[in-house]
Design brief:
The chain is α/β, with parallel strands linked by helices and 232 residues long. It is built from eight helices and twelve strands.
């Protein structure tokens, strides 16, 4: 078959839910060889790729300003930017949250150092860096109105555990928004493991109890998919 289930003893040491993952011998060179719900998890772009996140062409290619405008933030919202990187999205959202704040969550201390530098450089007070782990975004319980993941979720090494942590951090009725390159379109020139189909996204979010609300295809190459944490 070309794959192995993760050793249960090793799995339990890594994570309580890691039996939901498969490790396959045959896989993409751009992925970890680790599969979740039949999707290969992509390798993480390290902090050395920070300049790619800040490239001048990003506005034309991805239209992040449109993402911000679509989401209709309220002034007092608490927004978690999961996989914040250099804070590219965090710093575009923060001016709208005049009574709220952005929790800029990332695994890499080097990325959070960049965010801290940019905060001081630009005198921004409502962006709060948070260091995550592989399995926990470290969000305060029921504190977040909206969790945003822009081209990040497909790289989560433990997607189920991380999403469970995000759901715990959401207020009842809080939203989760994923922006991912459209896996349905073979002509989008992004490596396959860095794209996701809407069907796959919905399946994985349903597994952690989130309810699909809408999909917006207003961006040149990406879906914007909105989910909600049930009130009860």
């Amino acid at each position: 078959m070309g794959y192995l289930l993760l050793n249960p003893a090793m799995a339990s040491a890594a994570s309580p839910s890691s039996t939901v993952y498969e490790q396959r011998r045959i896989h993409s060179p751009d992925g970890l060889g680790k599969f979740y719900m039949d999707r290969e998890i992509a390798k993480v772009m390290g902090h050395t790729g920070a300049f790619w996140l800040e490239r001048p062409s990003r506005e034309t290619e991805e239209q992040p300003s449109k993402v911000v405008s679509i989401l209709n933030f309220k002034p007092d919202d608490v927004v978690a930017d999961i996989g914040a990187g250099t804070g590219y999205m965090s710093f575009r959202i923060s001016p709208l949250l005049t009574k709220g704040k952005v929790l800029a969550v990332d695994l890499q201390p080097e990325m959070l150092d960049i965010i801290e530098f940019l905060k001081k450089e630009n005198n921004i007070t409502n962006v709060e860096p948070i260091l995550a782990t592989l399995t926990n975004p470290n969000l305060p319980p029921e504190s977040v109105d909206l969790a945003l993941m822009v081209d990040a979720y497909h790289e989560f090494e433990y997607p189920q555990e991380t999403m469970e942590g995000i759901v715990r951090g959401l207020k009842p009725g809080g939203r989760v928004v994923l922006v991912e390159y459209r896996g349905e379109n073979p002509f989008i020139m992004i490596k396959p493991v860095h794209k996701m189909t809407q069907r796959q996204v919905r399946k994985e979010m349903q597994a952690v109890g989130l309810v699909w609300r809408e999909t917006k295809n207003l961006l040149p190459q990406q879906h914007l998919i909105v989910f909600e944490k049930p009130q009860a």
